[in-house]
Every structure is written in structure tokens, then in C-alpha cells.
Design brief:
This protein has about 270 residues and is of the alpha+beta class. It is about 50% helix and about 15% strand. The protein has helices at about 5, 35-50, 80-90, 95-105, 120-125, 135-145, 180-195, 200-225, 225-240, 250-265; strands at about 10-15, 15-25, 25-30, 60-65, 70-75, 150-155, 160-165, 170, 180. The structure holds adenosine-5'-diphosphate and magnesium ion (MG).
């Protein structure tokens, strides 16, 4: 590291960035080169809009560059991610997941305003994904018939993007935000819980499936989004998931996708 970076004290790393404490109760999020300018701009803007609408989050203080790396300055949050908190408090996992579902429901009462359209994002991911042309065509026609929705959707609402602070749960990391139907965002969280990055041994898989069901229940109670809304979106969100997730194509995920496609009357993947 050179001068500017060597003054920083390392806090944490995520999939797209490294976080450092810069003093004054602020942190700098230094993005990796693979992250687009558009994602950084969206993250900064949405964090501020969500905070202004009452969503518990850290609103971006500003964008900057730090040793040539693109960065966002945030207020520092004090506490672990929900993932780390549950590791230390496994007995209270159900309680924490109930809070997380309630937070997701509250977020969806906020309007997504001028953010990019989630339906468009899903259509693009399906079009550039590995499905056959026939399946792509049927899936896009099916997606066209689903409602747009006007909710603020996060796109990456998982245990590593929620922090446990003394003031309650706080959501971070808005780079995948969009405006759309809340059920699509809920399905995405179900998939992140069950098939996302992280340990994948059979014991963890059992825990993940249990946690996803618990989250779905508490989310449904908080949001009013029904099981049938969620089922409608499952085949679309699962097909879109295939675009970027070679490693997530586990046998369990492929069974989940096949079932969702069959229930919607869509052709199978191959
Ligand atoms: N405002 C903050 N204050 C303190 N720690 C934070 C803050 N924002 C993020 N972190 C920590 O940094 C990690 C990565 O941040 P995140 O925004 O999720 O980055 P990525 O886009 O790389 O996933 C988080 O899991 C959390 O531990
Ligand atoms: Mg993150």
C-alpha cells in the first residue's frame, strides 16, 4: 500500500470492496476494478434515498477516489453482520431472521422511484444467460405478464448485508437496487440464503433451508406478499440467477429451478 492507504485501518472485505476506518466515525469503501461506475453511483444514491425514506441504513456521505481506487465514504456502523452475529448466537437465529424478514417488508413499503426497472434487469439476465432460445422466449413472455411493482428492491438482501447494531438491524450494500415487485426481491433473498456463496456441506444446507423458510414466513407476515406472489416470480428470478452463477449451479439449485419452471408451465432448461 502507498501513503494514503497505509494510514487506514482495515475493517472488512466483501465481494466488491474493502472497508477501512478513516477516523471521525467514518469508513471508506474502496471498490475493486471489476465493479462498474454505474454500480457505485447506484449504491451511493440509493443508500441516501433509502435513509431519507426511513429505511435503517448508512447513507453515503460522498464519493471520492483513494489512491486511484473509486470509493464511497459512509458513517461507521458498529456491530457485526447478521451472519457473524448468528454464528456467535446460534440459539437466537430464529429471532434474528424474524427481524430480518420484518426489515425486508418495511423496505418494500418504500417506493423505488427512478431506479432501474427490476423487470428489465431480470429480462436482460435471462437473455444473456444459458437457457435455450425457446425457454428464453417463453420466460420473457411470462415475465411480460407479471406486474411491474413500484417498491424499492435491494437485490442482494442476505445475512452479510445486514448489520446488527445497538439501534437495531441496518441494511447496507445497495449496488443492485432497482424498482420492482417486492416478491421478486423476496425470492432472490430465498435463493441467496439457500444457494448463495458460503459453506455448502449437508448440515449447512439443512440450516440454510430452514433459515430461508423462517425468513419467508416473517417476511410474508410483515409485507402482505403472499406465497403465490412469491411462487409466480420464482422461475424468473431463478433463471436470471444462472447468468452469473456457475458455481451456484448445484444439484439442489437445479432441482429448485426445474420445479419452479414446471409449476409455471415453462419448458425445462434442457
Ligand atoms: N458503514 C459501515 N460501517 C462498518 N462496517 C461496514 C460498513 N459498511 C460495510 N461494512 C462492513 O464491510 C463489509 C463489506 O461491505 P459491503 O458494503 O457489503 O461490501 P461488498 O459490496 O463488497 O459486499 C460488510 O459485511 C461489513 O462487515
Ligand atoms: Mg456486501
Amino acid at each position: 500500500m502507498n501513503d494514503q492507504a497505509s494510514q487506514l485501518s482495515f475493517l472488512a472485505s466483501g465481494t466488491s470492496a474493502d472497508l477501512f476506518d478513516i477516523g471521525g466515525d467514518q469508513v471508506v469503501k474502496l471498490f475493486r476494478d471489476s465493479v462498474s461506475d454505474e454500480m457505485i453511483a447506484r449504491e451511493a444514491l440509493t443508500s441516501a434515498q433509502a435513509a431519507a425514506s426511513g429505511v435503517p441504513t448508512a447513507a453515503a456521505i460522498g464519493r471520492t477516489t483513494w489512491d486511484g481506487r473509486r470509493a464511497i465514504i459512509y458513517p461507521r456502523l458498529h456491530g457485526p453482520t447478521l451472519m457473524d452475529w448468528i454464528r456467535c448466537n446460534p440459539i437466537r437465529a430464529g429471532w434474528a431472521l424474524d427481524r430480518m424478514g420484518a426489515l425486508h417488508g418495511a423496505m418494500h413499503r418504500v417506493r423505488g422511484g427512478t431506479l432501474r426497472s427490476l423487470k428489465q434487469v431480470l429480462a436482460t439476465d435471462i437473455t444473456y444467460g444459458p437457457a435455450s432460445h425457446a425457454l428464453q422466449r417463453s420466460a420473457i413472455a411470462y415475465l411480460d405478464r407479471l406486474p411491474y411493482g413500484d417498491a424499492l428492491t435491494h437485490g442482494d438482501f442476505h445475512l452479510g448485508n445486514v448489520m446488527m447494531t445497538s439501534g437495531g438491524l441496518v441494511v447496507i450494500d445497495w449496488s443492485k437496487a432497482a424498482v420492482g415487485h417486492p416478491a421478486a426481491d423476496a425470492v432472490r433473498s430465498e435463493m441467496l440464503m439457500r444457494f448463495g456463496i458460503g459453506p455448502n456441506d449437508w448440515v449447512t444446507r439443512l440450516w440454510r433451508d430452514w433459515a430461508a423458510a423462517r425468513l419467508r414466513r416473517s417476511y410474508a407476515a410483515a409485507s402482505g406478499v403472499t406465497a403465490s406472489d412469491i411462487s409466480q416470480w420464482r422461475p424468473i428470478v431463478a433463471l436470471a440467477w444462472l447468468r452469473a452463477r456457475d458455481a451456484g449451479r448445484t444439484p439442489a439449485f437445479m432441482r429448485y429451478l426445474a420445479k419452479a419452471l414446471a409449476q409455471a408451465g415453462l419448458p425445462s432448461l434442457r
